Amino acid sequence: MSGAADAAGSTARSERDLRIDFFRGLALIFIFIDHVPGNILSVVTIGSFGFSDAAEVFIFLSGYSAAFVYGRVQRARGFIVALAQIWKRCWQLYVAHIFLFVVFTAEVAYIAARFRNPMFAEEMNVANFLQEPHIAVMMALSLQFQPAFMDILPLYIALLLLFPFALWGIERSPALVLAISVAAYVVQWWFNFDMPAYPEGSNWFFNPFAWQLLFVIGAVIGHATVAGRRLVLRGWPIIAAAGAIVAGSLIIVMSWKLANISPRVPALLLDELWPVDKTDLALVRLVHFLAVAYLVAVLVPPEHRMLRAPAAYPVILCGQNSLHIFCLSIFLCVIGHLAVVQLDYAFWVQALVNGFGIGIMMLTAGIILVQVDRANGKGPDRRVNCAAFGRELSAA
Fold it and tell me: Which of 184, 266, 318, 338 has the fewest CB atoms lying closer than 10 Å?
């Protein structure tokens, strides 16, 4: 849901780092897969191979994209213009979130009544809305009421709201801003700061005091790209260290999964690491993700042929239209959740849900491309064509 990426829609494709769009699109697909309970396809998502998952990918890339887009605006037109554009995007995201909330709660309420399953509303965290809608609506408007699957947009809105001031600081002293962000992360863990949510006694699922660090790291790297600096150090010792972290995380996580199957398999470091806190972005999650991101940045260059493969094209389109595709995926998650539960997690149902859901997301991204091209005067005969896309990239 990187609004910054959408704001750059007028930028020529040749100026885009397709890795950002590709991996953001892949994160959207992984989020959809992981939100369908018992989904057998979840074995291929990033969360099955380590401590972090698609949420880290999304927030990091959102920070990178925001700094890349609005950093250019700030350099060219000044802080006030950048602030105005960022806050305008915040308002657009807020409106999208409220619209999504209304449709989501209506969808869940209808399904719960239609199938006489009140537990479905409870599971989707909508039961409070049905019991006291007058209060729940006010809490939703203040971003304190966050039903299932709808907790990452409020986080992004909160981070983007304060981002103009962070961007101003990054322009002058990236190290100082990063140090302040790290200090806020440490203080949050030390004093256990949380954002209150609705109903009373609950908190935001994604604690912005913790997740801001990942966003700022992405922003610092994105701004360095705008400034023509390279912050990612290279060298086999660093690559080997990152590889060891990723491999070690994989071994530990796999040992936990195998221990659930057979008590003879030892669950490595289970007492020391479990539970791996997602709400407050546990340090082990942060380190694992940064290691993965480093390896991807080093081993997958911007011109990698994988990014020009026809199969990568629909994923890239999803990443370039991330807000629209995210909102669509939420509706699809609810339908998929209902289908697999009602039909006892049958394999054919999971296959149908995955194929239908991911296919609709990709098709919608393609339709958006056609509509944007028409609006830009490229004519109705333009086709969503992988080969043509590859030629455009080759000529760039």
Answer: 266
What are the extents of the domains in the chain? 3-395
Q: How many CA atoms lie within 13 A of 304 on its CB side?
A: 15
Measured CA to CA, the distance from residue 107 to residue 309 in angstroms comes to 37
Cα–Cα distance, 365 to 313 (Å, whole number) = 10
Local structure of residue 41 (DSSP, 8 states): G
Report the C-alpha gap between 235 and 16 in whole angstroms.
26
pTM over 0.85: yes
- Looking from the CA of 326 toward its CB, the CA atoms found within 13 Å total 28
Tokens of 111: 């399904």
pLDDT, one tens digit per residue, over 85-124 is 999 999 999 999 999 998 888 888 888 888 877 788 888 8
Residue 266 backbone dihedrals phi, psi, to 5 degrees: -75, 135
The model's pLDDT over 308-357, given as tens digits with 9 standing for 90+, comes to: 999 999 999 999 999 999 999 999 998 988 888 888 888 888 999 999 99
